[in-house]
Specification:
Order of helices and strands: HHHHHHHHHHHHHHH
Number of domains: 2
Number of helices: 15
Helix content: over 70%
Radius of gyration: 28 Å
Distance between the termini: 75 Å
Shape: flat
Structural class: mainly alpha
Number of strands: 0
Length: about 350
């Protein structure tokens, strides 16, 4: 009973900590992890009683106790609780600050909730698998029976990210859509500052975590396959990232042509600032993909695998050089600004290294 009464004391302390925040009514976070921890402590104290009541199911009560004590469960429930707190705060914050409503704090809690829930599911499944093998070992009286290593490897993968990261991305897209709708005037501003509402890099970074988790599922087939799946998926994601960074610049250039004395200079600045940098980032990633392909082929024919790897490296290096050359040449011929025509930023070193080896 003492543990049960402690729940209300801890909850009152959490409530006071929430209220003592200067902006609790508009944007404060109500952390109830200590309250949830006290509930878990009380629930665990019931386990000996339940074992005594039904000793045959002692493994079940012990597993239930271990599952309830998982940190991922506490984090998940705390975030779920704060989703409703944030929803309650949305209109209040809007009224107090004379701004349009925003659900960004809600989406932040949503992402914490779905990722932590995925971690909890992984942890709980692993506890149940361990319990299953322990029960079977006791029934057949074979102490040598253990969890096979391939099973251990498979369930040590963060496989729930395959589901939880897309769910977080969906929430983020909803938030971006509402932000764009409620700030249409900013988006249509002649200076094209509204392009800030169409930045998708963060979403592709989360998508990469999901594809990495999918690739890790191939652990039972060997590291070479994991490498091929992961790096090829990451290369595709980087290319999509470049495309989705460049498309907003194109659209803003065609639909808002009034900001600049020389309108084309805008798209050149945007190309140099974001997509060109992304291409430079994509090339090392493409080299990783080439290495995985070369390693795969090298298992059959090592010299040929090495040749394929360095051939792909040369292709990717040429693509990087062409992108830089395009940007600099466009500056010279369309903007007529020789000072912007800088070949020093275009590096030929990678191709001079890879081409002789190929």
């Amino acid at each position: 009973m003492a543990a049960f009464g402690q729940i209300f004391i801890v909850y009152a302390n959490d409530l006071l900590a929430f209220i003592n925040q200067p902006d609790f009514i508009t944007s404060g976070r109500w952390n109830i992890q200590l309250t949830l921890g006290s509930i878990v402590v009380w629930a665990v104290t019931l386990v000996p009683t339940m074992i005594c009541f039904c000793e045959f199911l002692d493994f079940f009560w012990i597993d239930l106790s271990n599952i309830l004590q998982l940190d991922s469960l506490i984090i998940s429930l705390d975030a779920f609780y704060n989703i409703f707190v944030r929803l309650f705060q949305v209109p209040i914050y809007s009224i107090f600050n004379f701004t349009l409503p925003t659900i960004e704090p809600v989406i932040i809690e949503w992402c914490i909730f779905v990722v932590a829930t995925g971690d909890f599911i992984e942890d709980a499944i692993w506890i149940l698998i361990e319990s299953f093998f322990n029960v079977i070992t006791n029934l057949i009286n074979n102490p040598n029976l253990t969890i096979p290593q391939p099973v251990k490897n498979l369930f040590n993968v963060k496989y729930m990210l395959i589901v939880t990261e897309p769910l977080c991305i969906a929430g983020s897209l909803l938030n971006m859509t509402l932000e764009a709708v409620t700030h249409y005037g900013d988006i249509a501003a002649p200076d094209r500052s509204g392009i800030a509402y169409f930045q998708f890099s963060y979403l592709f970074d989360r998508l990469a975590l999901s594809t990495d988790a999918f690739a890790d599922l191939y652990i039972i087939t060997g590291p070479e396959v994991i490498c091929g799946v992961r790096e090829s998926a990451r290369t595709v994601i980087v290319l999509l990232k470049i495309i989705f960074e460049f498309i907003p610049g194109i659209l803003f250039f065609f639909f808002l042509p009034t900001c600049c004395q020389i309108p084309f200079i805008y798209i050149l600045d945007y190309w140099e600032e974001i997509p060109l940098k992304e291409i430079h980032f994509a090339v090392p990633q493409a080299h990783k993909f080439a290495k995985c392909v070369g390693d795969q082929i090298g298992q059959l024919n090592m010299p040929f695998g090495g040749a394929v790897q360095y051939f792909l490296n040369v292709v990717f290096d040429l693509f990087d050089i062409a992108a830089g050359f395009l940007a600099s040449t466009a500056n010279l011929f369309f903007v007529f600004d020789g000072a912007r025509f800088i070949y020093a930023d275009i590096s030929f070193d990678p191709i001079t290294i890879d081409l002789p080896i190929f």
